Amino acid sequence: MLNLEFLFPGKTREVYLAEGVDDFRKRLARYAEVEIKTLKDVRPAGKPDGQIKKEEGEAILARLNPKALVIALDPGGRTLSSEELAGQIGTWEAGGRHHLTFLVGGALGLSPEVLARADFRLSLSRLTFTHEMARLILLEQIYRAFNIRAGTGYHK
Amino acid sequence: MLNLEFLFPGKTREVYLAEGVDDFRKRLARYAEVEIKTLKDVRPAGKPDGQIKKEEGEAILARLNPKALVIALDPGGRTLSSEELAGQIGTWEAGGRHHLTFLVGGALGLSPEVLARADFRLSLSRLTFTHEMARLILLEQIYRAFNIRAGTGYHK
To answer: What gap in Å lies between CA B10 and CA B43, rounded to an integer?
Structure first.
């Protein structure tokens, strides 16, 4: 069984998005070990943006499992169809990578150091989403991927 | 002031998504006349898929304002960046199109007749979203577009 880990800087503040994320976390638990880790917020007011991004990045890097295959959401990353994403997860699994860690940056995005560590950079869309909405979209897509793999009717 | 109309077949069942849609509807009201019209659900169990799609399409076509510029969400449509979408809305407005109607299909998508009527087909992503999530993503993108036009900090 795959181990899916989601690392998010700061809790999901928008209540309806937090509910959606939690809904898909529970549904995904049918298919994989799922853990959502919310990192301590490093955004006290007054810090310059670059400093916030750097600290968020350091907190992420410090929490990464060395064995993890790291997928970072990045507007400059690859766009995939849902079927391709499902296939990609299958390829990783077949290659013996059983620990997948998904990273979504904060409002400022991920630091260059984190992007450099990522094994795969994924773009959800040409459109820009809020980082909190990206969390929900990501969870739904991963749930969709497992449904595609399992051949359920969810994705039809 | 632009008139923005959203036509959805059936109410948004997932409560957290309905809350998000309503949140952005309210926020958009600062920038435009906004109306979300939920069409009567034509999905009693047992109807074949083609029939449901056709009836949903007919209900949509019957409700369209003849003056409306119609934007249909369609996986086969054009993908735009958020900035391009904002620019496109500006182009329509400059061309005297003040009534924009956005269509999101039901679980089965929009009928060929509806897609044929559309002035613009928009794809949100190569990824497939549920039609209810597409509603939320669309509302947020339109809100984002107006923030880009207004030069607020929302989209930074």
So the answer is: 9
